[in-house]
Amino acid sequence: MLIANIQDDIAGRFRKDGEWVRVANHIAPNPNEVVERLEKMLAGYNANSRENIIKRIALLHLVFEHTHPFVDGNGRIGRVINNYLLIREGFAPVNIKFGDRKEYYEAFKEFDEKGAAKIMEEIVGKALTNSYHKRLAYLEDARILTLAEYAKKNKLSHSNLINKANRQTIEAFLEKGVWKIGCRRGGF
User: Fold this and answer.
1) CA distance 182 to 188
2) Residue 22, beta-bridge partner list
3) Is the separation of the CB atoms in 119 and 128 below 8 Å?
4) DSSP state of 13
5) How many CB atoms within 10 Å of residue 36?
6) Angle at 62 between CA 58 and CA 66, to 5 degrees
7) How far is CA 114 from CA 107, 117, 119, 121, 122, in A?
8) Distance between CA atoms of 58 and 67, rounded to whole angstroms?
9) Cα–Cα distance measured from residue 61 to residue 41, given in angstroms and rounded to the nearest whole number
10) Nearest Cα to 145, choosing from 137, 155, 156, 135?
């Protein structure tokens, strides 16, 4: 459904013999291995149901994108799967930003070389926290200010607030590439 009417000849089916995919320096596994790898990925995800959701989603995302089961649309489909699983388990959906592509590709490098998911766990964790900060600010009907506005009104260092937002030590969130924060009505 995500690539229907774009490339109907490949929409809705896994890669088949002769359909190899390369993303940056990564060549996806043999098309004949796709189904088995996806079955193993889902079995692992479900078997670890007591594990932290961030770790589970990060590993699932890495395995899915590493497998690259489709000729096209893997990123979109991978993000839909992430959000489906998050929502199914009672969490807010996330928007994994690829503004820092270097960090995103470092996560895949770490996975390829070490079988580790630490970098992707940080990416997913930040995305989930960002999603909650944003939702809570709007649900509380807070006054939404950019961090620049907040800094000016409170005579604070804007760069210091940006650093805190990046470290997620304040309840700021990214919205359309701009750091914002929710303030209770009547105060800053």
Assistant:
1) 9
2) 27
3) no
4) S
5) 11
6) 175
7) 10, 9, 12, 14, 16
8) 14
9) 9
10) 137
Neighbouring CB atoms inside 10 A of 18's CB total 6
Place of tokens 């950019």: 146
**Would residue 6 be called left, alpha or beta, if left means φ above 0 and alpha means ψ between -120 and 50 degrees?**
alpha
SS3 content of the chain, % helix, strand, coil (to 5): 55, 10, 35
User: 0.90 cut: is pTM over it?
Assistant: no
What's the alpha-carbon Rg for the chain, to the nearest Å? 19
What is the per-residue pLDDT across 72-107, written as a single tens digit (0 to 9) for each? 888 889 999 999 999 999 999 998 866 667 898 899
153 burial type by CB count under 10 A (0-12 exposed, 13-18 middle, 19+ buried):
exposed
Of the candidates 96, 24, 10, 90, which has an alpha carbon nearest to the alpha carbon of residue 60? 96
Q: Which two tokens stand for residue 144?
A: 């939404």
Residue numbers annotated as active site? 68
- Report pLDDT digits (tens) over 101-160: 789 889 999 999 999 999 999 999 999 999 999 999 999 999 999 999 999 999 999 999
